[in-house]
Design goal:
alpha+beta, Alpha-Beta Plaits, Uridine Diphospho-n-acetylenolpyruvylglucosamine Reductase, domain 3, 16 helices, about 450 residues, eight-stranded antiparallel β-sheet, 3 domains
Length: about 450
């Protein structure tokens, strides 16, 4: 069978699994792995069979496009496209994020300052809807209304509340084999924000092109931007190995001004140590790291370890035994307008104090109905992932609630892959649920799929 025939067979299995779910029962994926950080209510109901929908159907190196199944991980997608010297426009940081997940749930990385978010390079998508149908959706343009453009433009940030992508056709970008890095330190957050704006507008710094842009706030007054320049030339240097070696990428940002990576290792530079979160499992201890198999230095392994902690309450037990206050898990990505980044960082330092914080500029290329970023405006994503000792009130999530409120005050939004606490009115204004409801009424008339608010806030 051809890959296209395999794909059609997998879609038929998906449809059959939908038909096997009792009428009126909620429809969910039968998926064992996740990159979400919110717990949902348990269910014994059968889920949708997405087996066989996890690969690359076809890469067209001439047109620079790829047809990709929705459950294909970026790790497998990058392996297929790099064989042709191509990569997706935006490759999220973690290997096991799926293309469909990045589009319906949003993804971001260092190319987002010039390429936007992953869904902005999608040319068309097949969506398995709550009605049990596969609908092909395309964007509207100045000369065409598109096919099911309402679904196409509402699907990003819908988190499965409108359906699941079975196939996506995406644009690809030509890349050379190497990436030269420059780490630039800033002591002042205002200057950091102004420099982000200047680089985003000119796509250069000190007369050199910038192809990738992200940064790290290590402490108040210690901010770095990492400028990536895609290149064919090693200039006599040997690429660093942060994927398979003993060195840790985020520490190198403070230790050296320049660096060189292969394009493959650049794409996965954050995955090896889950940014810096592998330290919670001892993987950054040099003695442990030498014994830790390379194949286990990856984000999905750490995610499984985190799952064990959640299941058995290991961290809470250790805190109780040591007499420490209970922890609140603070795992969030937020976006604020670049001009408000200094105010957010100052507030975050005073009220949360978690470090490091990842910084990633982005510019939306066009309006998107479920995540209203102003097109052409510069935003900065701030990512922070860890725990804060708050004491007996940890279960009420005071820190997360305060972050939500401050981000809202600063004209920002937050991604919904983690816990959210908005009231329905605020949520509706931020994520345009009236439009979501209207599109859902067309493609999920019997409400078989859980609504976005119920899924992300009520955790159903």
């Amino acid at each position: 069978m051809s890959r296209w025939q395999d794909h059609e067979a997998a879609v038929e299995r998906l449809k059959a699994s939908y038909d096997a779910i009792p009428a009126g029962s909620p429809v969910r994926l039968a998926k064992k792995t996740t990159n979400l950080f919110r717990v949902r209510s348990a269910t014994d109901a059968p889920g949708l069979d997405v087996s066989g929908l996890d690969g690359v159907i076809e890469v067209d190196p001439v047109a620079r496009t790829a047809d990709v199944q929705g459950m294909c991980t970026y790790e497998d997608l990058v392996d297929a496209t790099l064989a042709h010297g191509l990569i997706p426009y935006v490759v999220p940081q973690l290997r096991t994020i799926t293309l469909g997940g990045a589009v319906t749930g949003l993804g971001i990385e260092s190319t987002s300052f010039r390429n936007g978010l992953p869904h902005e390079s999608v040319l068309e998508m097949d969506v398995f809807t709550g009605a049990g149908e596969v609908v092909t959706a395309t964007p509207g343009t100045a000369s065409s209304e598109g096919v099911h453009a309402d679904l196409f433009e509402t699907f990003p940030n819908s988190y499965g509340s409108l359906g699941y992508a079975t196939r996506l056709k995406i644009r690809l970008e030509k890349v050379p084999p190497l990436v030269a890095l420059r780490h630039v330190r800033f002591d002042d957050a205002e200057l950091l924000a102004k420099t982000i704006t200047a680089i985003t507008e000119s796509r250069e710094y000190d007369g050199q092109e910038v192809h990738g842009l992200d940064g790290v706030a290590f402490a108040p007054g210690e901010y770095y931007l990492t400028l990536a320049r895609f290149t064919d030339t090693a200039e006599g240097r040997t690429p660093s190995d942060y994927v398979g070696g003993q060195r840790i990428f985020y520490r190198s940002i403070q230790e050296r001004e320049t660096d060189l990576l292969t394009i493959h290792d650049y794409l996965w530079r954050w995955d090896t140590d889950w940014f810096w979160c592998s330290g919670a499992f001892g993987a950054q201890n040099s003695r442990i790291r030498r014994l830790w198999p390379k194949r286990w230095r990856r984000s999905d392994v750490y995610m499984r370890l985190l799952g064990l902690d959640r299941r058995f309450g290991i961290a809470d037990r250790l805190d109780d035994r040591a007499g420490r206050p209970r922890r609140e898990r603070v795992v969030q990505d937020i976006e604020v307008p670049v001009g408000n980044l200094p105010a957010f960082l100052d507030w975050f330092d005073e009220h949360v104090g978690m470090r490091p914080v990842w910084l990633c500029p982005l510019v939306a290329q066009r309006p998107w109905r479920s995540y209203p970023l102003a097109p052409g405006e510069v935003y900065v994503n701030a990512g922070f992932w860890g725990t804060v000792h708050v004491g007996p009130g940890a279960e009420s999530a005071p820190v997360n609630r305060a972050i939500e409120a401050r981000v809202h005050e600063l004209g920002g939004h937050k991604s919904l892959y983690s816990e959210a606490f908005y009231d329905e009115e605020t949520f509706a204004g931020l994520y345009n649920t009236p439009n979501l409801d209207a599109v859902k009424a067309i493609h999920d008339p019997d409400s078989r799929l859980t609504s976005l608010y119920d899924k992300t806030v009520r955790r159903r």
